[in-house]
Amino acid sequence: MKKIAKVVKMELPGGEAKPGPKLASAGVNMGKFCTDFNAKTADRKGEIVPVIITAYEDKSCDFVIKTSPVAGLILKAAGIQKGSATGRKGPKVGKITRAQLRQIAEYKLPDLNCNDIDAAMKIVEGSANNMGVEVVD
């Protein structure tokens, strides 16, 4: 069994990871990691992809790819660049439909702390409200 040197959580652009200081801090073979990561996330170009990297003492590594952050998915669905600066108290900056909300909740379900789609939808709807994005029927 290999000895774990470090476990690092980071967010990288899907299909476009490059060697750099962020990866150097993980202590992994950057070229190999970037090639493997980019191959596995090529279908997620333009998205921020959370990844957990387990680096071993022999410089090899394993990584687990997580689902994209809820905020990014809501912004994409609403077609806006950023949420409201004042959150739920301020003006609404965009809208998403209940169908889009369900689609995001279904995608995020494996990474959310809940058991069913209704609970997941409530979590995503709360995030949308906090970003100033209205959910419409």
List keywords for this structure.
two-stranded parallel ribbon; 5 helices; single chain; alpha+beta; 137 residues; three-stranded antiparallel sheet; elongated
Topology at a glance:
Elements: E1 4-13, H1 21-24, H2 30-40, E2 48-56, E3 61-65, H3 70-78, E4 94-97, H4 98-108, H5 117-130, E5 133-136
Parallel strand pairs: 4-5
Antiparallel strand pairs: 1-2, 2-3
Give a written overview of the molecule:
With 137 residues, the chain is of the alpha+beta class. The chain has five helices and five strands, in the order βααββαβααβ. The strands form two sheets. The protein has a three-stranded antiparallel β-sheet, with no helix packed on it. It is elongated, with a radius of gyration of 18 Å.
Strand content: 15-25%
> What is the end-to-end distance?
53 Å
Largest sheet: 3 strands, antiparallel
**Coarse structural class:** alpha+beta
Given as residue ranges, the uncertain stretches (5+ residues, pLDDT < 50) are none
Q: What sequence of helices (H) and strands (E) makes up the elements?
A: EHHEEHEHHE
What's the alpha carbon Rg, rounded to whole Å? 18 Å
Oligomer: single chain
Adjacency order of strands in the biggest sheet: 1-2-3
The global form is: elongated
Overall average residue pLDDT: 91
The count of helical stretches stands at 5
What helical percentage do the residues reach? 25-40%
Please provide the count of β strands: 5
